[in-house]
Amino acid sequence: MSTPRIAHLDSRAVIAVTGPDAKTFLNGLLSQEIETLAPGELRFSGLLTPQGRLLYDLFVAAVEAGLLLDVAAEHRDAILARLTMYKLRAKVELVASDSAVLANFPAHVDEMEAGWFADPRLPALGARAYGLDVAATATEDDYDAHRLTLGVPGPADWGTDRTYPIEADFDLLNGIDFKKGCFVGQETTSRMKRRGTIKNRMLPIAFDGPTPAFGAEVLAGDLRAGEVLSGRDGRAMALLRLDRIAGAALTVDGRAVTVDWPDWVPAIVTS
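Given the sequence above, the corresponding structure tokens read:
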């Protein structure tokens, strides 16, 4: 078993959400169920456009004082502004927090000290914590390499208002609750799921040498089969057309690439 490592995630920041309407307010906006969030629990979610495209990813943690939103640091101000726009008369306070975001990977929460939240996406991603005074034993780059090894996409892959959350695998990574009530972008998201019109998925690809440029075409013969997203030498995420990659010889810039199916992606998605 690998020794757990702790990294400070400087690319992430925290928003504290308090007030009697905090859960109800967020539940009406986010793709994940928030009303039933229990103390000590963390949920992964998305904030979408009304048309159903993914704006921002968020983790929502329930703490004694209220809720914490774990968001991309570069987008925290924009997220605060958008949430404030939706606030209206809700009894909610939204405040930027200076709490540090930490990741413990791979790890078992039941073997760790209090303050760690199990990552709701995959057990192998370990746990996250906020504001703990813990020394780092790894870098954020180490954590990103671990995430990429598992084939889990991240913010650099979906960007802002570029793709749909199902294409970014939010439905497979516990980022969408299809049984909850309405949320922003819910109609398009539910329709894609209900009709099975999921043509594209973010999946990892493997290759020899350096990572192709972001946006480089993945070809199945002469047909466009997708595009390369973020990555590192030998491995990257790609947004791929499911109907063109099955059994196909894929190339990027003339180099052979293969899809490395993660074990958490159901066979029905890959067929």
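The radius of gyration is 19 Å. Try to locate this feature in the token string yourself.
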